[in-house]
Fold this sequence. Notes:
Number of strands: 14
Strand content: 5-15%
Strand order of the largest sheet: 5-6-7-8-9-10-12-14
Structural class: alpha/beta
Number of helices: 14
Mean pLDDT: 89
Distance between the termini: 56 Å
Largest sheet: 8 strands, mixed
Radius of gyration: 29 Å
CATH architecture of the largest domain: Alpha-Beta Horseshoe
Low-confidence stretches: none
Shape: elongated
Order of helices and strands: HHHHHHHHHHHEEEEHHHEEEEEEEEEE
CATH class of the largest domain: Alpha Beta
Amino acid sequence: MSKLSTIEELYNNVKEKKISKIEASKILESLINDSDNEYVRTRAIDIIRDLSIRNEKVFKLLEKSIISDESPLVRYAAASTLILNFNETAKEPLIWAIQNEKSIYFFKKILDLLESEVSLQMEKIYLMVIEKLKRLYKLNYKDLKFILDIDFQEYLRFKKEFNDFLEKFNIAEKHKNNLLRENTEIGYKGLGRVKASKEGFITELSLADLDVIPESIHLLPKLTRLEITRCKLKEIPNKPPDLSNLKYFKFNNNELEKIPEWVNEIAHKERFNQRYKEEGVNSFEVPALTLLGFLTGKDMIKISSFEEIPQKYGQYYNVNKEGYITGILIEYPEYPRIGIFPVLLCSLKYLEELYLVNQNIKKIPQCIGDLKLLKILDLRFNKVKIIPDSIQDLKNLEYFNLQNTEGENQINYIPKSINNLEKLKVFDLRGNVINKFPKSLEKFKVIKK
């Protein structure tokens, strides 16, 4: 049985009054002093806090943990217990901790706690934490809070990867501790994403290789330039950044389920649309081009015909005499990749040709059926697994290409109704693994497998 299991049993026994707090305190103190497992020591301190065990011996133990324990998890557990259970008498060890602490984990957790539990007795400690972070980050409070959130996210990722690494390789304790300090202390990592600041406000920010963009991005009031690239976004902030001063925006090479609504809002801003309007694009359709520019990091180039493209790769568009977009082409051998089929493209009612080649697209939206005039749909070398039923509404579709690198993609669903597209001449599925190929399509002579 693990020590953690034993601790939980101890906690339950105290709650059920099978043993006294005094007996439990002795066992917990022993674990804190003797265990070499930081999670055991942390949990033992948490239980002391939850059971409201308050005495001079416990206070001294917590004070010792703050000063000498190597684990930031333990140091924070001790600090939080002092704040919640000892309050006024806790100031001296807490002041020492704030003056000497460097851990990202400690400062992130202690700041969150003090913001939710701040009292008159703890106000001095709260202000000391903020002043320490201001000195470290050289930013205003709201701006540094966002960077601290980024640092904390990186800390969590490093810890997970580091623990996996330690399971595979035997590293000397000295080297292990050095690596931990270098990657878990407040330093240049989060600030490396700040490209410019003025009077403590972040003005230019570049976010890359993140899984989550912290909600605190909405706290940044002075942003003029924002880049979000190469992120596998599992979570997208509900509150958008302040867009009032934004002059440059890039949102490319990301993996995401959907485009955040606030990104679409930026695409509709007049200051980002002027170029395309001057090129004669209908004002209602300009945001689609602006959005594609954000998603690639490059402006779309107007061309009269795709047959006149000056080079093999690029990103182009064309319009009819009334300024409505009739063709879009984005194709590069590697980058940039838009990472998604933007729903906003479904609003282009005059679109006849759409080439989104090698763009890491995983899903064709149901709204594809709104493109009634579409003749060419080229989605080669993407990761599409399901062809939506609404494809049947593309009555003018002549060319549909989902060709892929041999065996790298599996298509799980092809609607039988695709057989009703009377104008379809090419339906290219080469290189895909087809799961449950519809029998009604097996005689479709233009299908290439």
